[in-house]
Amino acid sequence: MTRYIMIADLRRCVGCQTCTAACKHRNATAPDVQWRKVLDLEVGEYPDVRRTFVPVGCQHCAKPSCMEVCPTTATRQRDDGLITIDYDLCIGCGYCAVACPYQARYKVSEPAQAYTGKRMANEIAREDPQRIGVAQKCTFCYDRIDHGKANGLTPGIDPDATPACVNACITGALHFGDIEDENSNVAVLLRENQSFRMHEELGNEPGFYYLWDDHAIENAPAGVQEIQANVEANT
Amino acid sequence: MRTRPESKKVATFCYNCVAGPDLMTVRVEDGVATEVEPNFAAAQFHPAQGKVCVKAYGLIQKAYNPDRVLQPMKRTNPNKGKDQDPGFVPISWDEALDTIAAKVVEARGNAGRDGSGYPRIAASFGGGGTPTYYMGTFPAFLSTLGPIDFGFGSGQGVKCYHSEHLYGEFWHRAFTVASDTPNTNYIVSFGANLEASAGPCGTMRHANARIRGVKRVQIEPHQSVTAGCSAEWVPIKPKTDPAFMLAMIHVLLHGDRSRLDIPYLRDRTGSPYLVAPNGYYLRDPESRKPLIMDSQSQQAVAFDTPGIVPALEGEFIVSGAEIGADDQVWQHHSISVKTAFGHLIDHVEDYTPEWAAAICDVKADTIRRVAEEYLDHAQVGATIDIEGRTLPFRPVSVVLGKTVTNGWGGYECCWGRTMLACLVGALEVPGGILGTTVRLNRPATGRAESIQAGPDGFMAFPMNPTGKDDWKATPHTRNAYDTLVPLASNSPWSQALGPTHLSWMQQNETLDTFPEATLPDVWFIYRTNPAISFWETDTISDIMTRFPFTVGFAYTRDESNHMADILLPDQTDLESTQLIRVGGTKFMEQFWEYQGYILRQPAAEPQGESQDMTWIATELAARCDLLEPYNNAINRGAGGVALKDRGGRYDFSLPTTDKHSVDAIWDASCRAASAELTEGRESDGLDYYKEHGMRMIPFSKLRWYLICEMQDRGLRFEMPYQEGLLRVGRQLANRLHEKGISFWDTQLSEYEALPEWKDVPGIWEDALENNFQIRIGDYPFWLLTSRSMQYNWGSNVAIQMVREVSKNIKGHDGVIMNTQRAAEMGLKEGDWVEIRSPVNVVKGRVGLRQGIRPDVLLMIGQFGHWITPTAKDFQLPSMNPLVPMLMDLTDATGSAADLVRVSIKPLGDAA
Amino acid sequence: MNSITPWLQRFWDWRAAGNFIGGGIGSGLLVWAAVLSLAGYAVEWLLLLGLGVIGVGLFCVFLELGRPWRAINVLFNARTSWMTREAMVAAALFPLGLLAVLTGSVILTLLTALAGMGFLYCQGRILQAAKGIPAWRIATLPPLIASTALCEGLGLFLVLSPLLDIPVTVIATSLLLMLLGARFFAWGRYRNSLTQHAPLACQDAATQINAQFVRFGAILPALLAIAQLLIGNGTPWLAALSGLCALLAGGFVKFHLLNSLAFNQGYAISHSPTRGAGRTGPSVKPGWPSGHLQAPVTASSHPQDTLAAPIGAAERA
Ligand SMILES: Nc1nc2c(c(=O)[nH]1)N[C@H]1C(S)=C(S)[C@@H](COP(=O)(O)OP(=O)(O)OC[C@H]3O[C@@H](n4cnc5c(=O)[nH]c(N)nc54)[C@H](O)[C@@H]3O)O[C@H]1N2
Ligand SMILES: Nc1nc2c(c(=O)[nH]1)N[C@H]1C(S)=C(S)[C@@H](COP(=O)(O)OP(=O)(O)OC[C@H]3O[C@@H](n4cnc5c(=O)[nH]c(N)nc54)[C@H](O)[C@@H]3O)O[C@H]1N2
Ligand code: SF4
Ligand code: SF4
Ligand code: SF4
Ligand code: SF4
Ligand code: SF4
Ligand SMILES: [Mo]
Q1: Which of B364, B543, B779, C150 could make an S-S bridge to B353, C-beta 3.0–4.6 Å?
Q2: E strand or H helix that includes residue B695
Q3: How far is B232 from chain C (nearest CA, A)?
Q4: What residues of C are in contact with residue B210 (Cβ under 8 Å)?
Q5: Percent of chain B residues topping a pLDDT of 70
């Protein structure tokens, strides 16, 4: 079995929104539609304040409340865990959107126009009438995954088989891969680090994990040990 | 899912901010650029693995932005002003270029200088130097015009890392300074907002370091994104950083000094040099070499005597000569002297953490702990192996941000940072702090290459002369950099790094004894917006109305080209062609293991009638009858690559008499580049670079660390004691006073051998009270500014996608203030307020955060646009109209800082 | 949308509200029609009206669809979707109802009422399944939906009774009084559960609504009903007024349920991450009552007294 999941390493993320922008490019989403976005959360009181940047988007839940409510079966779950929307079945009732506890879904009623009244060449080139009036959300870039796999590539490892936001991330905070494969990049990361999922208590079993700490220093990536070794060798 | 048409990927680069250039590809579908993606083919070469930041993703909307200026325009309304409609009307390229050529030819009359001796042609380029990497062969054209005034600034320089630029290059060939992030374990950052400012190369390095367990202590008045990503945030009172650093130095020097890097201080710095009574080094009377005490022979000997073990501390009875300003000489016989290091120890004796605590509003324990952690992490004595060479390993670094490294206090901070590194031997070694690049020293090809040995055992630095007979008594540019600022040196960059606000200020009041401040007959502006970016922007705009003939290269209408007479539409990032040199080491945090060339090539069809900068330059050269010198300049390398090898291995020079197409020029450059990188073996041209985007050769990591060169050449860093600056300062004082100039006296006080704490915040407070007859108490807040990762200055404000995603990060909707403080004033999130400084007032909405000092307000970036399309509707306040340009706020390097005192008044819902 | 705290969902507006209002009133009315038919009254008009109101409600949702001409697809997911089931029940409800009208058969009338209740039940489940909206998924909502539907139905009946030749009996009025009480109680429980299970903004909105609801949805109609009971027959308009209040208040609550209380879940993290050698930090759930988060919470870092970290080692709280 395969279940693709995403990991956001909160220790790395700087809130730059490069992933947000990359998704907008890849999927030509309309202004103010952000299948991926990164929150700026503050906790504590001056001067003891913490600031954390949190990538969010569709969590490709194992128990997707969006799919359960969808009256048309437009929202479906693939064998590899991806939650898809069939734009041709969807009636745009919006039920899935209010059933999603992660604010992941959007509905757009007219073509993209970043500058009102003046459509740009790139907007016209990327116009997708299918997506008007129906539900839309992060697809985990299934087109990239499928195309990549068809060409013998490994999602999460080979850029051409990996979601655009993950490829674009400039701090290596985003990871994608098969959690069922115990040797996969994501399985290893989850083993070596402490993670949580958002709104765990709601029971959707999200396919999106947040790393917030390592288990212990001995699990720290090679870098430290190398430098340590180097230092000990030379002092 | 809609099936997409056949598409190709074009390899190119983004250089929209100084953290770049960074490599990317652009997907092109049916001739339309649709998608920016990383260039994974370049991952092995590029420090950010072929990735670009969010700003680069704005370039597609930039190309197709419907608000672009797409044909040449001329002004029909002779009256210039904020309130005037320029009445721009479209004209042909011929008309535009002929008009400009005529003006240029005329302005080149009497050697290109006017009655005051100032250049009759001026040019301003912004964005911290990045425009050079977009303007193709325009520099070649400029180089044919004779004298040009580059001194009308837009902020890059004086509002930038100014003191760091000057002192950094002086001390370690460091135009800017970065931590050796991949190796460092402890970073003390005074307002270096790197997670916003250092681009993909920087953020990638720091993210990896965090996972390694690096500890970064971010010391700044508001909790920037960088502070958010740091192990600890210390909210310091603005502009008190020198006190914090002096106290750290105190802790290190007045604790167990044997824990410091004694060999480094002894052999790599001027610490052992003996200081004579008048404050200059004690020297050997004949050779004039500085003396040091050999602890074996107990003799004072010349610093470079072989086989000695210099004493770091102690008081000694010795004889020798002392040489002061203007060659004044004192002979000393059996006087008691101390080492420079000894003086340093005394100097910081009273600068205790308790003393600093009161000034910085930071607990003394915190200051002491940070100092001790810094020492603990330094691992003095450790070494590391880099490419087979064993180097010291000192994984501790202190980095400084923009507002810390400019204006008053900048000198103290840069000195303090460099001193902290020297004390533990962390300057220019693995794990420590490293310079990124050189701008003032030549050759600019590499930091090590730019080193020349000076007479006193330090690196020589090309100061502007202050001697009786070589000092430039009358400035030859309007910002007088070579008259007033010895450290600004005299490289092609120096003008722009001078006190560029003086060019503006003098337009309203010529400085004492200086030639009457004139305006240039012709002014070129490209990729800069002083009317938004500089201080006191209303004044700047007003002065701009008086420029007789302004040529604005225009991407869109903006606040500066609003005063232009001609607008020229240049092809932007995704439409134009240029080959640039990359690799090696470069700010913000680009440390490559390769060097070479990358190509910018068109991905999108050129929009409208826009033209490539190289085409424009060539046309202008032709119409000014300057083709020959222009082509010669290109052949010499004014386009970025010398087309002819001095060693004679290759020659792709262009025939000098005819006009060459854009592609022909870059094809020759590409061939020369290929040949240069392969010792003449290869000569692949434009097509090769269009296909591969780049060509690289290895760059040794050892060249990241200046220590190698210093060891090999037995040189010392000019630390801690600033004898040279002291002398230069006295000489400058003599020159100015001989000429009856007193307006620079306060600035002269900065030339100290060892920097004293001055009440830096007080300097701002007094300056405001004295110049505007106000009570500082009525302006209770410090207003600061900060970078945003989503914006490159004010450059991409009009790009919808950038604006949209930036809103996910706090602070992009108005002025940030402390939640509790706001509550006391009855302010809620989003309330409209009026922010008033002694010079001006702006309106905006408040955004509330816990992560900011109660006495501080923050306005991110550069907004406040009033004509730039779409941006003019943002209603976002900018600090720039509020910050006065004052001589009192100008430090000795000729810079001030982006901060001012303000008051805030609730406006209720009445916007 | 750049909010980090829960914000009002914008997918379902007055049109969706219309469906729940229509569904409530209509099915309520069908129920009372059935009761009356048992008592031997002719209830064709009531049946028609009930169906009509439900029909109008359904037409409202139709207007909400992004792709209305594919509306038929709504029937594709009987397996799990209460919206599909609602549609199916509706599909049965109308023929049944019309048949009942035509035949006047009591059995069919009862079956229609049954279908109406089914329809109402589906609507309750639709809201329950909308997991993204705390104010809808709360378990205390269905009792409110049911009680108010019966209030509304009876209310409408009382409004109409002067027109129909069905006398307003003491029973009807006192029934309304009881139902008003039940609805008031259900609303109280609902609001109370919001304080544990809904975002702060939602709770504030509920407080706002509460004032009017209690005044015009409970006290006023109750007084009117009581007055009617005391004065006795001959003043049906008192009962009618009371019914009108009960009816409007029901619509009022549902309109706000869809438009003012429908804050989404928002976001939360159960830990602030380590940043290099720094410490982990506490959980954050913007816009929710503090300490609401179930997931474990580690102590907040105190930067001012963190200790020097050994290389690479992360300090922990
Ligand atoms: N409030 C505030 N002010 C600051 C700073 C701050 O932090 N806060 N920082 C200061 C510093 S450090 C610096 S370096 C300066 C930089 O300040 P500037 O050098 O003025 O930089 P920009 O604002 O980027 O100016 C870029 C201008 O070029 C135009 N432009 C953009 N792309 C193109 C193009 O392709 N072609 C043409 N022809 N024009 C183009 C844009 O419209 C914009 O008007 O700002 C200083 N000012
Ligand atoms: N994304 C992006 N990156 C850029 C640029 C850009 O426009 N956009 N511009 C480039 C250029 S030209 C420059 S000069 C650099 C600037 O790079 P940085 O200096 O790293 O960035 P800034 O945010 O401008 O620096 C301001 C920071 O200093 C803090 N600060 C203000 N006053 C004080 C003080 O008195 N003491 C201390 N300790 N801190 C203080 C503020 O809180 C803020 O976080 O960024 C470069 N990189
Ligand atoms: S996140 Fe929302 S939209 Fe995505 S699968 Fe889960 S419930 Fe469905
Ligand atoms: S909007 Fe489309 S996907 Fe969502 S529930 Fe309705 S039919 Fe299903
Ligand atoms: S996975 Fe693909 S669709 Fe989803 S956020 Fe990332 S880029 Fe967008
Ligand atoms: S690109 Fe990476 S670092 Fe930037 S916001 Fe997205 S996840 Fe965070
Ligand atoms: S940091 Fe971003 S904007 Fe700056 S050069 Fe690199 S990619 Fe371009
Ligand atoms: Mo700058």
Answers
A1: B364
A2: strand B694-698
A3: 5
A4: 274-276
A5: 99
Instruction: Report the sign of the C-alpha dihedral through residues B501, B506, B508, B511, in that order.
Output: positive
Task: Judge contact between B176 and B166, C-beta under 8 A.
Answer: no
Residue C3 forms contact with A (CB below 8 Å): no
Sign of the torsion angle spanned by Cα atoms B4, B9, B12, B14: positive
Q: Which amino acid is at B549?
A: F
Q: How much is the mean pLDDT over chain B? A: 97
Q: How confident is the model at residue C293 (pLDDT cuts 50, 70, 90)?
A: low
Q: How far is CA C2 from CA A120, B167, B680, in A?
A: 25, 43, 55
Decide: A38 in ligand 6 pocket, CB within 6 A.
Answer: yes
Residue of C nearest to A108 (CA): C66
Alpha-carbon distance of B785 to B787, in angstroms, equals: 7
Transcribe C263-296 into DSSP letters.
B-----BS-BPP-TTS--B--B-TTS-TT---S-
Amino acid sitting at position B41: A
Contact C4 A39 (CB under 8 A): yes
| Long-range CB contacts for residues B292-301, cutoff 8 Å, separation at least 24 | B292/B339, B293/B318, B293/B339, B300/B274
Q: Which two tokens stand for residue B422?
A: 């020297």
Ligand nearest to the CA of B616: 1
Compute CA distances C97 → A44, B70, C28, C91, whole Å: 60, 68, 14, 11
User: In chain C, what is the straight-line distance between the N-terminal and C-terminal CA atoms, in Å?
Assistant: 35
Chains touching chain C through at least 3 C-beta pairs below 8 angstroms are A, B
Tens-digit pLDDT profile for residues C18-64: 999 999 999 999 999 999 999 999 999 999 999 999 999 999 999 99
What was the ipTM of the complex prediction?
A: 0.96
Quick check: B3 contacting A, CB < 8 Å? no
Q: For residues B776 and B903, give the distance between their C-alpha atoms in angstroms, rounded to a whole number.
A: 10
Say how many residues make up chain A: 235
- Whether C217 and C255 have beta carbons less than 8 Å apart is answered as no
Cis peptide before B588 (omega within 30 of 0): yes
Residue C170 CA to residue B88 CA, distance in Å, equals 83
A92–C9 CB contact, under 8 Å: no
Give the SS3 label for residue A106. strand
Angle between helices B613-623 and B662-677 (to 10 degrees): 110
| 3-class secondary structure, B760 | helix
User: What is d(CA A213, CA C277) in angstroms, rounded to the nearest whole number?
Assistant: 10
d(CA B549, CA B564): 7
Q: What is the pLDDT of residue A216?
A: 58
Distance of CA C39 from the midpoint of ligand 4 (Å): 44
Which chains neighbour B (Cβ–Cβ under 8 Å, 3 or more pairs)? A, C
Neighbouring CB atoms inside 10 A of B822's CB total: 21
User: DSSP labels for B91-127?
Assistant: --HHHHHHHHHHHHHHHTTGGGB-TTS-BSEEEEE-G
**What is residue B695's predicted lDDT score, i.e. its pLDDT?**
98
**pLDDT tens per residue, range A129-183:** 999 999 999 999 999 999 999 999 999 999 999 999 999 999 999 999 999 999 9
For A49, how many CA atoms within 13 A lie in the half-sphere containing its CB? 25
pLDDT per position as a tens digit, B261-289? 999 999 999 999 999 999 999 999 999 99
Kindly indicate the confidence band of residue C164, based on its pLDDT and cuts at 50, 70 and 90: confident
**CA B211/CA C312 separation, integer angstroms:** 8
d(CA B852, CA B802): 25
